[in-house]
Inverse folding.
């Protein structure tokens, strides 16, 4: 129940260690990733056409993927290049997947590689921009990918799940506004004249601001299909314009979330934060990363238990309140995309 | 395959920690337990009506159960009391379960709460009686609840499973007698003029009796539905009347067993011992508890492996010997109760 | 998908500890093994006819198998001998399995015991021969037994899976020859004038040969049903006749592999080496065993991951190249044996 013809984050470049291919299941497909001799990332089915060994148990020799069982050398296009003592011209090819490397991530298109369009990759203000710094990590979570979208599109949960870091009662008390822009969904909340919660007090201090000053705080959650959620977050000195305040009066960042289904019921969750203050401060990057890691671990427990509950009561309908509007819109968009892919598949079969 | 309209032990009061709800699956139902502002134990479905989060991940604030995901406040009757920023009048209610606190346990009725009858709770001589002391523990065991009833209603297994503590060959050599009293089943064995086994020698010594004296030993297993087994056990100086001997000539106790199905194939096993000697000796209570814990761990291994075997050979019929009469009677009673519940359900549906 | 009327290795004699029966599932059958009063190994269904307890949780008293639950005493023929307080004449018998002890192993025939023929047990030159020494171990591996046969009948994998011990590129570069002799399959490869790889250099050194001399190396894999693979391996000084070289010019051994299906998708893998040099050197035996243990652990990882891959893509056909001829012949023989058993079963049922 996820679009296949879409770009998902597959891994980070540092996961592609010299000589060692990376096996990862994405959208139900077992894939192997590695860099070829040109340094380009390749993605193939993780299945040697000889006897079905996982190619990810092999190694990368001078940019070629070599099966670790009997030495078959696989080409980037899924055709066997060679195998000791064998003629390989008639070997059945394996699937290749379209891959792009951008914004500090490796992206994969699990569906039809011929339809993969690099122009559909999202753009980000923070990417490659020296005024910004970015850091993050990855969690495997046993939940449907839409539960994580719901989570990120309804931040009232911060008050309860993250009470000691970014939660505060004003989130609950401030209504949110949700609207669509084509296939994008935006949910936002602006809190005026409040005290910053612990995480933001720390950030203000690091940014040279007085953490005890009253602030205007904002959360602008931006969903785009299949499952990217960018959240503009920050605080500005009260009355200076909030999200639109001048740089010197605010501490602003973007929570960067890429949600990649492993298969039905589990995800690779790439989380992180891009910030617009002290971009060169690596220690601050590490500190934020550590704080985010703790926060998202709190979400992980909740989401995995919620998933178990929904499997126990599969028939029960959930409620969609105003705070759930962002997730609900996202689900409708995803339903339409999945239905369209199925329609195309049925038409192609007919 | 268990009665739903019956009282089962759900937990002990000390499992209900201030502020923290307790999640436990009982008879296939996921439940959450907590104390409300009046100090009464409440039991509800462990499912937030908003988005299905387990309420047991939340907290109890001033006696109200608050969902840990988005702050919904749930009432003891399964109706939502409030939620930040929401009108909750039309929120779908969740199931509540009837609960009683008695005899040092929390009891739950997994079936129709309106039919729960506190008068059906069992009574025990040892409960609240200063002449008795009670201690025990709880094990999770991966077996059908009827295998544990069989186990407790046929104590010949003590000779083999518990050879080093309470087993002795005289158990095997002494026939047992089984009879029914309505829906109760009693199996008893009286051994005359024997040497006490190690556990009972320890107990005699603690009770000021000479452990080397010949004794009359008894085991009177009392099953009552759905799955309570009280076993009168003890030793009296030989020829003094056995079970009916005067207090000063015997060391007597009741093994207290409440078996609560988690779902088909697994149980929460609440075990313990109520004794009528040295009731104020907390150290003795701890020592007995430790000994019982070791003994029931031996049963656990046997029962889990027996369960696996029966799943491997589901078609094979087991034998019912005279020693199995107690368990066989109990199964017939349970079959009848379950069939009656199904008949009612079918009649209600028609 | 394995022949049932065949001899498989069940365990080694040292696994049959005095007094303690051994439970092991073989070809889908849960079995219990023990020595009777005559010292003969017996194999029975691991299921007490009384209440289904696993007999392997019991004990062996003076050569009789006693159930650990209620003391039923089981005879070697599957008939109950006695039970405290019971008449056992009408107790349903359990299955017995034919067993033989030979070549330092316990063999079991999971099919019809009446058809078990000790004359069908294989013979080995190294067994009971003082000129040879034998050592080995056992691994549980989660793969179809035929994947292990494939592995052992195609040693080109040594170059990749065992690159640091017995692999070398000359294996890949030298064609192998495969032929059948009735239901046996032989695949062999002879490499002339090469450098010995690390394992064989060690062996040559231990055998008093100069490890830097060029050698002729051979690998002669001999499959016999149901799943025994003996591999003659070794090196001789170059030009001295290879496999047929006189003893003083070679270092020769047999890799001894017995593959016993636990059930579909997992095996007990008994591996070892019989060698014809320094048979009395127990330290060398231990050292070879340690080296083999490391090597077969490399196979284990590959085979378990291959199995997972084949389960993910059950429809996909594998390739059968010339190097796979040994495994392919073995599979055809096994298919024929299994089909014949099914035909007999269908005829018997009709």
């Amino acid at each position: 129940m996820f679009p296949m013809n879409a770009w998902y984050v597959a891994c980070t470049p540092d996961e592609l260690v010299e000589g060692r291919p990376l096996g990862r299941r994405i959208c139900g497909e077992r894939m192997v990733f590695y860099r070829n001799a040109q340094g380009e990332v390749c993605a193939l089915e993780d299945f040697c056409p000889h006897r079905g060994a996982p190619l990810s148990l092999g190694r990368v020799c001078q940019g070629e993927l070599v099966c670790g069982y009997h030495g078959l050398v696989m080409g980037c296009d899924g055709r066997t290049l060679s195998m000791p003592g064998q003629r390989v011209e008639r070997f059945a090819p394996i699937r290749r997947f379209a891959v792009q490397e951008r914004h500090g991530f490796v992206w994969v298109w699990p569906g039809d590689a011929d339809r993969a369009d690099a122009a559909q990759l999202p753009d980000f203000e923070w990417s490659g921009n020296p005024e910004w710094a970015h850091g993050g990590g990855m969690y495997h979570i046993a939940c449907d990918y839409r539960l994580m979208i719901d989570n990120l599109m309804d931040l009232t949960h911060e008050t309860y799940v993250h009470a000691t870091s970014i939660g505060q009662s004003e989130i609950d008390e401030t209504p949110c506004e949700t609207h669509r822009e084509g296939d994008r969904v935006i949910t936002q909340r602006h809190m005026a004249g409040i005290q910053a919660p612990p995480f933001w007090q720390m950030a203000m201090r690091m940014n040279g601001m007085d953490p005890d000053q009253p602030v205007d705080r904002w959360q602008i959650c931006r969903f785009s299909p299949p499952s990217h959620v960018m959240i503009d977050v920050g605080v500005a000195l009260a009355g200076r314009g909030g999200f639109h305040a001048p740089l010197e009066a605010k501490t602003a960042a973007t929570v960067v979330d890429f949600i990649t289904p492993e298969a039905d019921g589990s995800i690779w969750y790439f989380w992180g934060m891009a910030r617009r203050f002290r971009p060169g401060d690596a220690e601050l990057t590490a500190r934020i990363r550590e704080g985010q890691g703790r926060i998202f671990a709190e979400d992980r427990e909740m989401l995995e238990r919620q998933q178990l509950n929904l499997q126990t009561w599969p028939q029960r309908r959930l409620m969609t309140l105003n705070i759930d509007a962002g997730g609900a819109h996202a689900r409708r968009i995803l339903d339409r995309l999945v239905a369209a892919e199925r329609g195309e598949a049925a038409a192609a079969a007919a």
Summary: The radius of gyration of chain A is 22 Å. The longest strand of chain A covers residues 250-263. The mean pLDDT of chain A is 96.
